[in-house]
Fold these 4 entries.
Entry 1:
Amino acid sequence: MVTTGRVLVLQLYDHFLIITFMTFFPDWRISFSVLGTPFVIAFLIYKWRRRHLSAYNAVEEFLQSQNNLMPISYSYSEIKKMTKGFREKLGEGGYGTVFKGTLRSGYLVAVKMLGQSKTNGQDFINEVSTIGRIHHVNVVQLIGYCVHGSKRALVYDFMPKGSLNKYIFSSEESMFLDNEKTYNIALGVARGIEYLHRGCDMQILHFDIKPHNILLDENFIPKVSDFGLAKLYPIEDNTICLTAARGTLGYMAPELFYKNIGGISYKADIYSFGMLLMEMVGKRKNLNAFVEHSSQIYFPTWVYDQFNDGKDIEIECATEEEKEIVKKMIIVALWCIQMNPSNRPAMNKVLQMLEGEVEHLQIPSRPPLSSPERVIKNCEDNSSQVWLSSQTLSSTS
């Protein structure tokens, strides 16, 4: 890729620069003391600026080379104008800050100003090059982008209802999602992911499906968003290689950490969707140490045990039809979070299960994870054990 090549050249150039300096100043320690601290600082600033500005140029060069596939390129002055000087902040996180904006046509947008990148702009390129080619009702639409030196922005459709995160975990009555609406949102998210996996000329693996990355429009139609960790692969590739685990703790598939569990594939997104679906149904985090009974700390195993013991899940003011819908979503979620990736259904099968009758669904094996700090056993044999601890897991998001 262009960026990787450019960065490698820059690193080699930096080494060349240092060697050149040492050639002209053989006794470089004395030279530094003679020339003084200002020279040293100026030299280091020059190195830093050249490395980072060249990396920024590499990002711009790549995007320009892909111009026929990319959305609209905005100047930084246009970004400032559409946000009225970054007046109205919608949200903030490790990724950067999101502001509300208005195009000249009056169309509302969300402008995401990215923070300092740790990957020489690779996350930015990922997002623009993947989501820029996607057009689906359940995937957020990228309208444009801006690259101006170290400043980078992404311009999206404005989602007035915000993220799913604030609805499923809220105790406010005004934020409550009824069971039918929750079910329709689940269907929409599943359709969006299925399109990413099979609807494009390349399979797009998201690697960060979670409530925060599901946005809702004015009609509560869900949109999969945030493609900073996404990867593109040929559709025929059954497994892929990653140099490091990526995603958010609590939604990451176990094979991202432990290779003996199974190969990494689109099934990692299936696992994340299953964890998301569990939280949508339970209206709580899957792992919650503050519940009334210790058996309820890890929701997936608790709800499985309820089913296994022939007990119904208590749902206030729910009709029989709604209870059936909730049961169906739970069973589908249990299939999605199976430890062995090969036991998880593909997303088209997930959709069939969600749209079908609950009587036709079998309950899968009990989720092996009773909590993220317990021992995980290999699905294929019990001879090897690995320790999964929140102390040792790291998220790239």
Note: The two ends are 22 Å apart (CA to CA).
Entry 2:
Amino acid sequence: MESVQPNVMCPPPPRTFKDREELITYVRDFGVSQGYVLTIRKSKRDSNVVLGCDRGGGRRNRHKSEAPKRKRKENSRLINCPFEIIGKKEEDVWVLKIKNGEHNHEPLKDMSEHRFSHRFNEEEARQVKEMIEAGIKPRQVLETLKQSNPQLQSTPRHLYNLKTKIREGNFSERSFKSWRPNASAVGASSENVEQMKVFNLIGGKFVESQGVVFVDVINPATQEVVSQVPSTTYEEFKAAVFFSKRSFSFMEEYTCFQSTAYYDETPRAHTQRQSENAKYEKLALIINTEQGKTIKSAHADLLHWLEVVEHACEITTVQWGKFFANASNATDTYSIREPLGVCAGICNSNFSSMVPLWDIVNYVCDDDDIKAISCVGSYKDPGNLGTLLRSALAFKWNGVFLLPGCCDPFNEKALRASRGAPFQIPLVSGNWAHLEAFSNEVQVKMFAGHPAISNGFKPVHKLSQRLAHSLADTPLCLLLGSEGTGLTERAREFCELVSIPMADNFESLNVAVAGGILMFMLQSELEDAQT
């Protein structure tokens, strides 16, 4: 029996639409799949439309007196549900924005219980109009409609209401272009909703890709497909490179001392910052939808983004160079700083450098100049990991290999401890099979830090200058275990063990301290040999 994921009443994912009707149809269909119904509250046909949950608002008290003489049973579905979304026209497209994505009630288990499911759709309303004008009795009209649609739930009451509108001349086909919910919200699927295809930005314009393969972008919270990313063709890739190269040739003609750049580019950066602040909530919602992060975490990511934009506002000082008069006999020297271009990578939220840097593995294996790599086991403490990354950068190790179970090197605590080292040293993530293949291909000597002088099963090297000197010309990989569990059994079998001599009554060092000592000692003699 196939299990069905319960509805969580999520708001519709943000996207753009070509017109107002497409937006309304999309959000209503999505609401049905989540167990709630959306109605139009306010609308300006050419600018915006506000939709809310049909259980929003409250029952109006039509009796002015505080103690009415006649008491009657009052029932109302309105419970002031705060859910509300806004569709706004921006330039040539309609943009969906979530004003309040929370409900204060449970989802409907069966949409057939809702009164909207009894409405006639557009085609049925036309048929009713034609049969009423032809003189056919209402009972026969209803039987004819049920023959063509056995699931029709409209009652004679709905038919007579529609008949009255037709006779009074209040019939409007546009009012029936809305929708009729599915019979069950639990079994509803988003497959009927046309997913947004992501366009390529080439030459400053969004261009639809001609690729035939698309990758679905999944909302981790609801498993809904929110968009589709195309596999860009070779011709489209070459076109993007051409326009980027042409733009770089154009921009390198300007410097910070020219009026065009100074008075135009800097205000443009300020304008971009104001624009991003205005779309702050929209950007946070996109991060929440596509990466599964909480809204609070998405806001933190955007703060880092805005810091980069604010730094761009000071581009004039960043581009300052240096000038040395009479550096030599009749010789002046100067240096200039110019942008090298733009590089972008799309990757997953954690290990955000892992996907763009996958190719580094090949360079590490093939480069003759790389002699030493630091390998980190499964660390749970981001502070220790950040300290080790900082030590690896300080002692000029060539890269860091992260084994499964290791925490995110771009964790906030890890970044503070590393002082930005993950952005300056190559990081590669993989498993033991990748590490063993790398070791066999490049003939790397595998060492693992061990707290004890003796292992009992295999010898343990004692860290010393003599040991470091003997490894001066040898490609080396240093493996460090976690603080709590230490080295795994596989690490002890696969690597040679090395320990740091300590006083007899001292058991072990913190893994970050021990790793720093090992990396310094094993690198120092290697650096001398390389120079």
Note: The first strand starts at residue 16 and ends at 17.
Entry 3:
Amino acid sequence: MLYRNTCTCNLLFLFQVFEQVVNVMTWRGFLSPSGRRFRMTLGAAHAVHRVSRDDGGRNRNTEEERQRLIRKAMLLPSSLLLLLGLLTWSPSASWAAKVIVVPPIMFESHLYIFKTLATALHQEGHETHFLISEGRGVPPSPYYHLQRYPGIFNSTTADNFLQSKVSNIFSGRLTFLELFDILDHYSQNCDAVVGSVEVMTRLKEAKFDLLLVDPNEMCGFVIAHILGVKYAVFSTGLWYPAEAGAPAPLSYVPEFNSLLTDHMSLVQRIANTAVYLVQRFGVRYIALPKYDRIMKKHGVTPQVAMADLVQGSQLWMLCTDMALEFPRPTLPHVVYIGGILTKPPNPLPQDFEAWANDTAEHGFVVVSFGAGVKYLSRDIAHKLAGALARLPQRVVWRFSGVPPSNLGNNTKLVDWMPQNDLLGHANTRAFLSHGGLNSIYEAMYHGVPVVGVPLFGDHYDTMTRVAAKGMGIMLHWKYMTEEDLYTALTSIIKDTRYRQRALTLSSIHKDQPGHPVTRAVYWISYVLRHNGASHLRSAVYEVSPYQYFLLDVIFTVVAALALSVFALRRCARWLRGKAGDQSRGGAFTGDDGNLANGHCHSEIMANGKHKRNGSLKSEKKMN
């Protein structure tokens, strides 16, 4: 026993030499909880070593203390494994994977999110690739690689196309028609990618481990199927699609684009149901068949319906958060990661810093309609400028184009601004925005109230939630006046309830286990570690619509009830008939009469007359 303890203690004492190497080579890993436990084990072992040297510890420690230290030293095997793991640890050795992202062909704000995600994945040892069209201006970076393809857009043509759609909306054309046109161009671009043999061969040879699909660019589902790789949805919008499979009771779950909250009247529930049915019809019979035709055109095998590909995602990561979203049922493989771009403010550039610090008396208002809307209509710009000029606050406005003629002296026009850092400044009083999701999360993160003028897409749904949560006011660009805008801005600046509510939502958003981008990386790694994490997927994808809505159960129960009622009625009728026959037979039958077939044939009357078949007949007297 002494020999074993002595050998063990000598070996553990030698491991202390390695501890210094570990501190240098794997300092990050050694500071982890496992590393701390390892250091504690080394300390215990060294203590046992000292105890053994000092004549069994009789002069310094009690026998119980020595046994306690020996038990800690018995952790040698696990500690040795930990040491070996730390000595060989590197980011690329820890579940390193090749991930390919298929971002939308337009909307640069989506690409900002994926760049942030790629940086975080790189720090964990993963390798990220972006599938980008030729001519799209994406600068090189050590955090991601670019896979180019001959698409239908480059940076210039994509921006011009998007601005033309915005201009058409301002001109009064129906928004959904413009959005359908955008979706049609998405499918045209998908046709070009899938039809490029060189591109698809190159992607197959790269042997990716996971593909991230932005549901705005649904071609990602097709590409994942062709490459035969696992895929997960990374939604850069607020959209929680019914195709994810989660229960969506229309009585309190507002459908996307319905502009409703989770508290609905009867009329609103009818409207919500109508929007749900229209959108399911549009997705099922208009949007998805475009990609079915593309796969059929290029002979993609095995043949799988696009609807099945959408529902086959291993994971759904949605850029929403319970601080902003309405509570609703969800599924284990649907996770919320809203606020990817949020972060504490950095010091402002010198010119902005001097301008912001000079507004201490009244503060300032930040105005931005996002990178996707460069040119506002003249009418809207005129209303905005007039309302902003009446405020006592200073205004910094991200603006492109010809300045409005009624621009106030308090307004500073810039073509770029450090929006996050300005929103995080102590003198910020309000944020005037189009309701873009990234901008709203930045405002919420810093506790800044919002006046929103949504223009298209998910802007309306985002601002509906902002208004419902008490963090801001929503105005409709078609109907708002300069006075409406001025009143809304004055309200959220002077009414402290908006600021307090924004700060409350900020606290809720931050009170989570890790930053959203950290959680996103965790779930991506989780899917990779568990080979798709199929244990998270519900059986909802394996049932047909009639099974999901229990139509077969309802039919079976109704049929069983109908058959039971029918049988009971037949039985009751038969029993009533039998009881009636018996009662009639008892009334007409005498003691001496004969009953045959329900008729009385002969009965001797007291007067000597005979009754035959119910009639009295006279009988001649016999001589």
Note: The chain has three domains: 2-89, 96-244+299-340+532-542, 350-514.
Entry 4:
Amino acid sequence: MIDIDDFIIHAQKDLIFRREPLFNEDKEWITFDLVDLEYYALNTTAAEIFYIIYLGLSRKEGYSKFCKKYDITYEEYETLIDYFMDSTYLFKYVKPLTIINGW
């Protein structure tokens, strides 16, 4: 779903996302927090959700990209997004962008 190897979300904190060959040939994602000088490993699904935010897509527009890769209903997608928003530490920094995009 992600056709690039890196992207930057400019938000409350700027976050750099980069695809890296950490543990397998499919490559995992890392994000780097420029303020705290910390990095976090992400699975592909989490990176794809951040990518949807990066593109400035609404939830429904994001689903149209997401369902092309995953066999998932819109209700399952909504549940996944809600869980992601509640449980992902980095999400709090990009939350204003999701409000602007109608999440």
Note: The chain has a mean pLDDT of 84.
